[in-house]
Amino acid sequence: MRRFLLGFIIGVILLPLFAFSYIYFGYAPVATAAPPFPLERKITSMALNARISKEAPKDAAIPVNEDNLMAGAKVYREQCEICHGASGPESPTAQGMFPHPPQLLHGKGVTDDPPGETYWKVKNGIRLTGMPAYGPSLPDQQIWQVSVFLANADKLPGPVSAYLSKPAETSR
Question: Rounded to the nearest 5 degrees, what angle is found at the Cα of 83, between the Cα atoms of 152 and 35?
Answer without folding.
Answer: 115
